[in-house]
Design goal:
2 copies of one chain form a homodimer.
Chain A (H helix, E strand, L loop, with lengths): L27 H10 L4 E5 L2 E4 H17 L7 E5 L4 H13 L2 E4 L6 H11 L3 E5 L3 H4 L8 E5 L7 H7 L16 E6 L9 E5 H15 L6 E3 L7 H4 L1 H7 L3 E3 L6 H11 L3 E4 L1 H8 L11 E5 L6 H9 L2 E9 L4 E5 L11 H8 L4 E2 L7 E3 L13 E6 L7 E2 L3 H7 L5 E9 L5 E5 L4 E4 L2 E4 H9 L4 E11 L3 E10 L7 H9 L10 E4 L12 H9 L10
Parallel strand pairs in A: 1-10, 3-4, 3-5, 5-6, 9-10, 9-11, 11-12, 12-13, 24-25
Antiparallel strand pairs in A: 1-2, 7-8, 8-18, 13-14, 14-15, 16-17, 17-19, 19-20, 21-22, 23-24
Chain lengths: 541, 541
């Protein structure tokens, strides 16, 4: 039974301290409310398991109470090596409800990387999916209490852990909404991973921002294609629950399962990179959906081909951009009604822009090396910087990295963009993906977009490769559509019709692209080959 | 031209003080963002005038800069006696952008009441619509700078006031989101009106709550049937702007204009009491709308007849409840999908409940005289109390009234409700509308709902009238539908089939009901006659 609000935490009873007109922003309260208003509504579908909001809340409070009984103190880190599942969702509510800090770990990391995160975060608890056991088996982690999750049956230790605890919402220990709710470790392409701290306030506001940008309502059904370990699933565990929508869990991105759930569960929303979108649109079960389904696309802009095909299937694209340090997305491309009239390629070009800040965020800036705004001319390139409620509070236990990232009072994304006259930003390169050829900057993203506009191209990645004369020159790696054909010369010609010739690749290589678990192309893998044996990955003229 | 965010207020430039990860919540930023992302989109339609978001922002910043040039200091009160119009919307952004506190005044008050509010609030400026001039003419208000608004033409002093000022967003003086953004005076049915203070934080969060509860998006078109002077239009000036939706102004509730704008402007949302809804559904132009239009209904629950007719017209009802002290609505009836299958009368009975807290609010409680929760049995009656971010910060310059309202750490609404087993509240009486007959409490709302279920009844009001034997007895005032007929005996019989007999009225009087400017029935006018010549309005046995 859901307790009356006066008898539970989050809503202090008569005589409690604090201001009548202020409650600390806390996304845990979204679950309390959803369970109170919609107790019998299905909250989560996880394979054969279906939990109503009353059950999801009870299970989350059980987790919280069990953690406290097991010795959790305020601020203790609770790591989770879980797939998208009911327990992972419960961890997003139960751990902060207990007063702990959630450290959700990418289950595709190597053992040694997991060990680093457990060690660095000082985790005292670990929620461990049975399938992730091999990651932990080689490690010695004496200070960590491991709670194993497997199958949800009576013998499941996680279920036993819950069964032994009270289902009443625990009294909140939160004193200030700027306390840390979670730590998300970056992928660490350079150096060791860094622990990005999210606050209760930021998570709450970002969740409401996602509700608004994705236009979710109590009728929404959200499919978990995005891993919850990735930026806490862009705060969607909290966002979907804020509107008492339905979570549909998905352990791995499997286009067959995605189409089965689109049709069978009435999915209305999901998130994914173009790589995920490509898997969805190219699957044999793909068909036009009766109701529009909203797809938040990030990591790279959707190509005209992708956009056209998604529109045919009734998939409505919302293009967003962000980083782990910004709770996932912080900007959204503001679609204008007039765009519907434009030809596909032009529409794709406009929708390729990352746009501007979420309703819950500040507007972002693009600056030069002295932190002065660059010209808003769509040509000059600068670094994207952010500040406000959708920016992390810092890197856990790494003051030097925090100070560097926050220099001048703004968070420095390391991403390069142009700034359009209408105020929208458009990414040119993620951090180090810029190619410098004969002293000219070439945006690998710009070249990729030009190549992706070719009707035969499914996806592509462009890197700089060493060149005696120019320092670096662009090289393209291209995957073609099923049954489509194109030669390297055709691709290069196509590119030269669209871009300055110096920006066009000299070499095109065909084949599948190496990807991270979140669907990002691993350019460093591509670079390995061409840069093998060199000290620097930056070409010198 | 909209300034780049780094060059304007709200987004401090490099080297500014403050935390990188915190921006004070400020609804003014919604306009800054909307104008930045959607500069060419029509923001407001006001008769012949149509302003794009760029223009609405520029006009609001001009107002702010002009107020500062005219001597406004931080925290100065700026009163507005304006109809729903572009200038009234601009006041909701320009006054807080200037650092002033907006005091929007009901233009249907008497001169003497306006004088009290100007005096009590210490207003230094007054934005005055030409049509409201007669309210001010008899007054001596030497300390108040009056800016007259009329027609929006070149000779309009308000337009001249704007023309002389910069259109750049002024640097924000906001230091803390708990500062006061506006003061809204209660209608003062008992004693003098009280000045309800809203904070920037509360206004921001309530606006996002309204976006979510009303399910608004950038495609939304909001019709201003609700007066903006009433609880700052339930924060919808800020909410609609948060999603860059469109405002359609309406100077007075005129069903002919409402239907013209429904059809001509593609309205998607509006708010109104059942009285307003009745005017809408009973108008000769009423017809089924192609797209569903969301109607937020407050002040009284919709009757089965009203609900049925609204469904026929494709008007989707969201039933909400609140007070001036809670920024307008603070609870919403959580519609459950299963309800669609129920017969109309049963559905209306469920939808008549006021529900529970907004996503942005805490859950509300119902308590006895000792502030203990009453049983959740749907029978016991208690007082509705609230706390959290959607509660006012206090009454302006009235510590005693604030302390009384906030006793025990909760805001006391004075409204009486039952608490259902599923946690929803259902109002039984607004403050003093309880009828005590032979020592038994009778809820006038419960009796009104029973009578309103009669197919011939358009609306009704029930009051207690003095009775020698029982102290008080219920009396019903009834307005019948066009062309419908019913006798008093039929109404009483109908009522006795639904309620305990002691709750049913002894007398039914037919005719139109006296209303306030916001559509609430003025029960005190009805009571005047029956209680004339008595000291107390509470019947003694």
């Amino acid at each position: 039974m859901i307790e009356a609000p006066g008898q539970t935490a989050g809503v202090p009873g008569p005589g409690d301290a604090g201001k009548v007109f202020r409650t600390e922003l806390n996304p845990v309260d979204f679950l309390h409310r959803a369970a109170y208003l919609y107790p019998e509504k299905v909250a989560v579908v996880d394979g054969e398991r279906r939990y109503r909001y009353r059950e999801l809340a009870e299970r989350s409070w059980r987790l919280a109470n069990a953690l406290r009984s097991a010795g959790l103190r305020k601020g203790d880190r609770v790591a989770a090596l879980l797939f998208n599942s009911a327990p992972m969702l419960e961890a997003h509510f139960g751990v902060p409800a207990a007063g702990g800090i959630l450290v959700a770990i990418n289950h595709r990391l190597a053992s040694r990387e997991v060990a680093y995160i457990l060690e660095h975060s000082g985790a005292r608890f670990l929620l461990l999916d049975a399938e992730a056991e091999p990651l932990i088996a080689p490690l010695s982690i004496p200070g960590v209490t491991v709670i194993r999750c497997g199958g949800g049956h009576g013998q499941d230790p996680y279920e036993q852990f819950l069964a032994g605890a009270s289902s009443a919402m625990p009294v909140s220990w939160l004193a200030d909404e700027e306390e840390t709710i979670s730590i998300n470790y970056t992928s660490g392409t350079t150096g060791q991973p860094k622990g990005v701290q999210y606050t209760y306030r930021g998570a709450y506001l970002n969740a409401l921002g996602e509700v608004i940008v994705a236009a979710m309502s109590p009728e929404s059904v959200y499919l978990w294609t995005l891993p919850m370990f990735h930026c806490n699933g862009w705060c969607f565990p909290w966002a979907v629950t804020a509107v008492a929508g339905r979570h549909v869990a998905l352990r791995a991105v499997d286009p067959d399962a995605i189409w089965r759930l689109f049709d069978g569960e009435g999915v209305t929303h999901y998130c994914g990179s173009p790589t995920v979108q490509l898997m969805v649109i190219n699957h044999s079960r793909a068909h036009r959906l009766e109701r529009p389904v909203t797809a938040l696309v990030a990591a790279a802009p959707p190509s005209p081909t992708l956009l056209g095909r998604m529109a045919e299937l009734n998939l409505r694209v919302v293009h967003v951009y962000g980083l782990t340090e910004t709770y996932g997305p912080i900007t959204v491309c503001p679609t204008q009604a007039e765009w519907q009239q434009l030809p596909l390629e032009q529409r794709a070009r406009l929708l390729a822009r990352q746009g501007q800040g979420y309703p819950s965020a500040d507007l972002v800036r693009v600056v030069d090396g002295d932190m002065h705004d660059i010209p808003q001319d769509g040509e000059a390139m600068g670094e994207v910087i952010m500040r406000g409620n959708n920016v992390m509070s810092g890197y856990f236990a790494d003051e030097a990295a925090t100070d560097r990232a926050f220099r001048g009072g703004w968070f420095h994304s390391g991403d390069l963009a142009v700034w359009h006259p209408d105020g929208n930003i458009e990414l040119r390169d993620r951090g180090k993906d810029i190619i410098i050829s004969g002293g000219e900057n070439i945006s690998s993203i710009e070249v990729e977009q030009a190549i992706c506009a070719h009707p035969a191209v499914l996806e592509c990645a462009v890197i700089g490769i060493p060149n005696e004369r120019w320092g670096e020159r662009p090289k393209a790696f291209v995957t073609l559509n099923n049954r489509a054909t194109a030669t390297a010369e055709e691709i290069i010609d196509f590119c030269r019709q669209r871009l300055a010739h110096y920006k066009c690749p000299d070499i095109v290589e065909f084949g599948p692209l190496p990807k991270t678990s979140t669907g990002k192309v691993q350019k460093f893998v591509l670079r390995e080959r061409d840069w093998a044996g060199r000290d620097s990955r930056v070409g010198a003229t």
